[in-house]
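Please check this one:

***
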Amino acid sequence: MLLKYDWSSPVSRKKAFVLLIAAAILWSSGGLLIKLVDWSPLAIAGARSALAALTIFLLTGKQLRFNWTAIQIGGALAYAGTVAFFVLATKLTTAANAILLQYTAPLYVAILGFWFLRERTNPFDWLIVFLTLCGIFLFFLDDLSPGNLLGNGFAALSGLCFGLFILCMRKQEDSSPMATVLLGNLVTAAAGLPFMFHTAPPDLAGWGALLLLGIFQLGLSYICYAIAVRSVTALEAVLIPVIEPLLNPLWVLLFVGETPGPWALAGGLIVVISITAHSAVKTLKGAGP
């Protein structure tokens, strides 16, 4: 279906629902697969994005539109920061901390939306901002090593970049969203290239994990999501991907045995509930997430 997809005509709701779930499950494999690759974090980010860029180009290349505006370039840079900081965070802290702190992106959208998109922020928005900040604070109460603290910082930066990426994507009207994602992957691949030669390359299992990361976890997942969002309600597009931050640490726990701290779990629960409630209420009111 993806190889023959015509971007001018949306798919059925049933197929869109399946694609949304598929995208969320593919995204959720990131924490586990990154943990399995013994290589420099930036080298992993670069190789993963290079494979994702190739996947996106092969499947959507004929329909990509590049306008080279400041917004499209800014969105690509924000995307690059999102994926690079996420790999650094996943290597330095727990997978749960990395994905849940990245999931704070709507917080930055709420704060910066007025200046960037001229969207009004109401008292309910600020309540969610306060609750999310409380959740983030709890992540740093666990007995963490300096490396884990640095990883939490990178995860928070990934969330900030993801929020900026969302703002840039919403600012674009007629541009191709996949073009911005492709550019972002190319930027990440270029930035990670020097680090690929500073350390020994991964073993065969590591290369297998990298192929899964680039082709499926990053490349195919974004294509699935881009196709699906055209045929579902905004509420469905917001709520179904919540599967990702719930499954991501579960895979790592089952296959690697990594367990997040109790404060991080409490903070993550506050973040997920707050952001999900905010997205649902705003979408039901027709204001968007």
The mean pLDDT is 83. Residues 28 and 246 are 8 Å apart (CA to CA).
